[in-house]
Please model this.
Amino acid sequence: MDNKSGSEYRTVRGYQIANYQENKLTPAMEDYMEMACRLCLENGYTRINKLAELLNVRPSSASKMIAKLSELGYLQYDLYESILLTEKGKETGTYLLSRHDTVEQFLRLIGNMNPLEETELIEHSLNVSTVLQLHTLLDFFAQNVAVQESFESFKKAAKK
Model:
């Protein structure tokens, strides 16, 4: 089999390990950053228990992850359990929120029946250029309502 892209083939876990070794966040870290950013943008800060509740994890697990993200310079964490975003955390978190919204909007556009779950499962595997292309496609449909309506008609006809 000819590999024309020049990339090495790996398992999903192999790509995750390679990204982590390049100081990229793991999917779990991204989930925590995304939620921390969402809450900090709404309230100015968040707390361990709130993150744990919304991510459906134990507070002890959330506490360990927040400590890691704090060590990496994404979050500030104090003795009163207040979690704040650093500048690096705000930049990363804002991108992660945008990526999530773009993927979820795309899945809604194509008629996905469970866009939140699907988004959570696939968003971590997309690189920045793919997210930008999805965003461009969404903009195209938003600016070309007739094309979007034609697509919707096509989807309905294809179901029959």
Remarks:
- Residues 52 and 58 are 6 Å apart (CA to CA).
- The mean pLDDT is 90.
- The chain is about 70% helix and 5% strand.
